[in-house]
Amino acid sequence: MTTRQGGGLDVKLDAILARRDELASLMAAGGGDYAGLGREFAELEPIVSGIERYRAVQAEIGDLTEMLDDARTEPEMRGMAKDELAGLEGRLSELERELQLLLLPRDAADDASAILEIRAGTGGDEAALFAGDLWRMYERYAQAQGWRTEILSLSETEIGGVKELVAEVQGRGVFARLKFEAGVHRVQRVPVTETGGRIHTSAATVAVLPEAEDVDLELDEGELRVDVYRASGAGGQHVNKT
Length: 242
Description:
Alpha-Beta Plaits; 6 helices
């Protein structure tokens, strides 16, 4: 037995699955704009994968709920089912948030790689340490996604913090995943530089820019106009030489 509790979200998901099936049928028939259909199909695939994970957890929750509603379920099994249900409900919430992000209107640069800029804000040395922590977090996340990272510029403090860092993160869909990280990040903790055990608030700013694509331009020399100018008057010869 399965259960549906997503309301309006489930209606949207059903429509996406129906469109995916329609696209598959149109491409199989070989009619229409095959390239355009293929692009739309590819754009839907990440969403469809998310829907399948979401629906699988929904089905597990439905089965466990049915077990708990059954008066014949033994106490030991009931306790195990409650524990598992709590974990699945948390997982369902995570998957729902991921789907909501996937359903946001696409940015033209979503598939692009990104330039990530991290700068220490208020908080002195502790802010610089926090900025370094942010970079290591993004770096590990990039590795987990199979992306490539390269530090383009780095300014460090004497104790290993990061004053300013600019890095390139290469991979498909990097900008779509990281663009919402832009802004001011704050942390409240006892700094390693604090001997009195007091909690400090530190901040760091993050900027995420889509990486511009290289464009090859072919110029017809016949369409170019080259103008040469010479200086006259005092000092003219010097200007001409330099």
